[in-house]
Structures are given as structure tokens and as C-alpha cells.
Amino acid sequence: MPADFNFKNYQESLAEGRLTAMICGKCGAYTTPPQGVCRLCGGTDTRLAEIDNKGTLRTFTIVRVGPEGTKPPYIVALVETKNGPWVMGNLLNIDPERTGPEIIGKSVDISSRVAQGDIYAIENIQSLTFTLA
Ligand SMILES: [Zn+2]
Q1: Is residue 2 part of a domain?
Q2: Residues 35 and 60 in one domain
Q3: Domain end: 16, 36, 51, which one?
Q4: Do both 76 and 118 map to the same domain?
Q5: Among candidates 84, 83, 74, which has minimal Cα distance to 130?
Q6: Which residues surround ligand 1, an ion (CB under 5 A)?
Q7: CA of 9 to the centre of ligand 1 (A)
Q8: pLDDT tens digits, residue range 72-100?
Q9: Ligand 1: distance of its center to the CA of 122 in Å?
């Protein structure tokens, strides 16, 4: 992992509206959020890169019983970024009770918001959010 790509820097980038990743010098794949090695080949020759804030909704679930401090129902989605990595976050601005599989495959804009800390998190963090494009 590049020294300049860690969870703290990733969080700071999200707060500034940028989605950062690491690009692999061996295979060219992008990996985000930060982890120790390339998600595809396991390579460690990586450097910091910024990736596109657009993606495709691949799947989702509706949470009806959430952790303390949340207000279900809400949608947790998996999005394939334009650069390849899949990321998880909340799909906003859509009624969970009035949606279905028809939204799978739709284009989304990727952003983030502050998620309140709870009994499992020491502090507030930036959490990925998606909106249909
Ligand atoms: Zn690689």
C-alpha cells in the first residue's frame, strides 16, 4: 500500500468529494478502499490514484432492522465503479418501499456523507452514498 493511501487519507479525500484508490504497477487494477495489496494480483507495487465518481448499481438490499442510531428502512447497495472496484454504501433519494430489481444496472453518482459513530465506531466517518444519475 502506498504510504500516502491509508484509511485516514481516504476519509479526508471523501470529505473533499474525491474518491481515491491505489493503482497497481503490475496489473493496472484499481483498489479501493485502501488495503495492503492489489485486489486482483496481490501486487504491492501500487501508487495513489483518483477514480471517477460514477458507477453502476450491481445489487442492493433493503435493511429493515438496523444498528443502533439508524432509521430503517434504508438501502445498502454494491456499485461497480467505472475504474473497476466495487464499493458499498447507501442508496439515497429513493423510497426503499417503492423500488425493486429494476434499478439494478442503473448509473449512479458516488459521494459520501458523515456517518454518526455508534457503540462500534470510535468516531464519525465518511460513508459512501449513491444517487441514481
Ligand atoms: Zn495488480
Answers
A1: no
A2: no
A3: 51
A4: yes
A5: 74
A6: 24, 26-27, 29, 38, 40-41, 43
A7: 21
A8: 999 999 999 999 999 999 999 999 999 99
A9: 32
| 1 located within any domain | no
Distance 47 CA to ligand 1 centre (A): 11
Q: Which three cell numbers stand for residue 56?
A: 453502476
pLDDT digit string, tens, across residues 6-57: 888 899 999 999 999 999 999 999 999 988 899 999 999 999 999 999 999 9
Q: What is the mean pLDDT of residues 54-80?
A: 94
Is residue 46 located within the same domain as residue 83?
no
Distance 10 CA to ligand 1 centre (A): 19
Distance 23 CA to ligand 1 centre (A): 8
Residue 43: domain span: 7-51
